[in-house]
């Protein structure tokens, strides 16, 4: 549909909310209209009668159509906020989740040396590494990802934010330069290949390589827990995110590999979603 004439914000939003449906149609519609018009979400409420020019109405219409089809809001906006940092996102990586901010919180509470060497394994957009670098200017934060597009994206996010994170292309530990870390942190793929959750919502538009890890979802966690000790300094920490029903299995992996001080931690939804040791 091509609209030649302008429409009011209110009219556009009402129609869009109906078409988008799902869990947060108002928020989604306001974010998309804000993206197209450059106006803030609060301005739509303060001035609902404001006219939006015809070309912007068309662009909004296109984005609403895509959202109604299920395209993630972050892909349509091109960015996602994580730890209050605006990160560029692309279909090459996982979209950073609020849950993963818990991993950052836990990392920041660990007793680490002042100039700690930290590695974010499988960094995607760079979210975890950048959040940590934004909080601890004295830490030396590195990040790796096996996907070239993810490496480029994380590097560009680091540049954009002016944060000194070194991003390396490496599938887990395979191509890392020799060295040891005080903290290795990771949000690896951990969904089981036959999980029905993979057919719903944003995950349908995210790369399987960032989500799926073998029949029980633990293939990558097994590898990481097994190899991490060879890359950790004495007294160093490994901290990983996992599924809500994997804490026991992941704790066992840590124990079998000789880790001490093993603990699982809860996410904002009160579920054990992280393990450290
Ligand atoms: N938590 C994400 C989800 O369930 C998956 C993230 C991951 O596999 N690392 O959608």
UniProtKB/TrEMBL annotation:
Reaction(s) the record says it catalyses: L-glutaminyl-[peptide chain release factor] + S-adenosyl-L-methionine = N(5)-methyl-L-glutaminyl-[peptide chain release factor] + S-adenosyl-L-homocysteine + H(+)
InterPro entries for this protein: DNA_methylase_N6_adenine_CS, HemK-like, N5-glutamine_MTase, PrmC_N, RF_methyltr_PrmC, SAM-dependent_MTases_sf, Small_mtfrase_dom
Record-annotated Methyltransferase small domain positions: 110-195
Molecular function GO labels: peptide chain release factor N(5)-glutamine methyltransferase activity
Binding residues for substrate: 187-190
Domain Release factor glutamine methyltransferase N-terminal: 14-78
Record's keyword terms, sorted: Methyltransferase, S-adenosyl-L-methionine, Transferase
CDD domains with a match to the protein in the record: AdoMet_MTases
GO biological process, alphabetically ordered: methylation
Protein name as annotated: Release factor glutamine methyltransferase
Originating species: Marinobacter salinisoli
């Amino acid at each position: 549909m091509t609209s030649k004439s302008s429409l009011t914000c209110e009219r556009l939003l009402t129609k869009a909310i109906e078409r988008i449906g799902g869990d947060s149609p108002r928020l989604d519609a306001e974010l998309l209209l804000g993206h197209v018009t450059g106006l803030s979400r609060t301005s739509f409420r303060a001035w609902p009668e404001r006219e939006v020019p015809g070309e912007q109405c068309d662009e909004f219409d296109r984005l609403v159509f895509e959202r109604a089809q299920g395209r993630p809001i972050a892909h349509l906006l091109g960015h996602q906020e994580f730890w209050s940092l605006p990160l560029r996102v692309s279909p090459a990586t996982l979209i950073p989740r609020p849950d993963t901010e818990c991993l950052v919180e836990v990392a920041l509470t660990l007793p680490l040396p002042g100039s700690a060497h930290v590695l974010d394994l499988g960094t995607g957009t760079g979210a975890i590494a950048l959040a940590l670098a934004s909080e601890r200017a004295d830490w030396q934060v590195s990040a790796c990802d096996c996907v070239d597009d993810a490496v480029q994206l994380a590097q560009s996010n680091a540049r954009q934010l002016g944060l000194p994170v070194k991003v390396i292309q490496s599938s887990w530990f395979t191509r890392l330069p020799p060295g040891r870390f005080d903290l290795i942190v990771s949000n690896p793929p951990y969904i089981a290949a036959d999980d029905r959750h993979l057919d719903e919502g944003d995950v349908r538009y995210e790369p399987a390589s960032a989500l799926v890890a073998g029949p029980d979802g633990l293939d990558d966690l097994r590898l990481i827990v097994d190899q991490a000790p060879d890359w950790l300094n004495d007294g160093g920490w490994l901290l990983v995110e996992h599924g809500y029903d994997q804490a026991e299995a992941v704790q066992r992996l840590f124990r079998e590999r000789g880790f001490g001080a093993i603990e699982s931690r809860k996410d904002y939804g009160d579920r054990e979603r992280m393990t450290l040791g």
